[in-house]
Design goal:
By secondary structure, the chain is an alpha/beta fold. It is about 30% helix and about 35% strand. It has helices at about 35-45, 50-55, 65-75, 90-95, 135-145, and strands at about 5-10, 15, 25-30, 55-65, 80-85, 100-105, 105-110, 115-120, 125-130. The longest helix has 12 residues, at about 35-45.
Amino acid sequence: MKIDDFTAASTAGEFHLAAHKGETVVLYFYPKDNTPGCTTQGADFRDRNAQFRKAGALVVGVSRDTLASHQKFKAKMEFPFELIADPDETLCQQFGVMKMKNMYGKKVRGIERSTFVIDGARNLVREWRGVKVPGHVDEVLAFVRAM
């Protein structure tokens, strides 16, 4: 499936998917900055970022948090990759990651933790939905290395 080009606000200014032609993009969606699972997931991507880069892949995180929240989260966690702010859910809708979830017995609408690998020609080559954090980043890295 071809991914439509998109432009979004990120911690490095405007992020344009088209600007990464020829490069693999690992786009991971997570529910919220500074929450336990999202912090662990981001740290796993951070700790393996050099390996992703060596494999020719760019890691980018996406959530509905504000740019200000992302900038604080990125600085605190020392993420070497950018975070995209999607408060209006444009990218969330494009990738179909918004779901009704159970939070302490209450139904809430939120992001289903998901990761997408987009090749250099903007084709979606792999997706993981309903991601469990432990071991996930290693699985994504293994896939990217095998491409």
